[in-house]
Amino acid sequence: MDIERLLLVEDNEVVAHAIQEALIERGIDVHLVHTGRESIGKLIHCEAQAVIIDLTLPDIDGLDIAEIIRRNWSDIPIILTSGYCEPAGAGALLNDGRTAFLQKPFEVDVLLAMIRARLLKPLNATVTHRPSPSAPADHRAR
Predict the structure, then answer these.
(1) Distances in whole angstroms, Cα of residue 6 to Cα of each of 12, 20, 48
(2) Distance CA 16, CA 33 (A)
(3) Does the chain have fewer CB atoms within 10 Å around its N or its C terminus?
């Protein structure tokens, strides 16, 4: 399956632009935001096929964002990234078949392979819900 649109949630501008450039070179439209609060609003409007989330953001923990996304968009693959080891509290999220963890630094082709694999997996959830743009987003601060 071809990936056309991604949402990248990364607060480090150097890392964000490096990932964005590499994905654009591969023909992927990348919607970039630098905070967790921006991510939910952008996801509602950009119709991304997958989301890449840095775990350590300045306003909302990346795991919290992933949980909000998973509750509202059960079909979207989520790749959690960090320069640290896999997060301790991510067990249930990582077992849903649509979410994965990738430690930085990583090769963009590995990232894309992980996303493609999750796009092809059958859903564990039976209902997919996409909130309307006017739906309030659940924002939990860290």
Answers:
(1) 17, 10, 5
(2) 9
(3) N
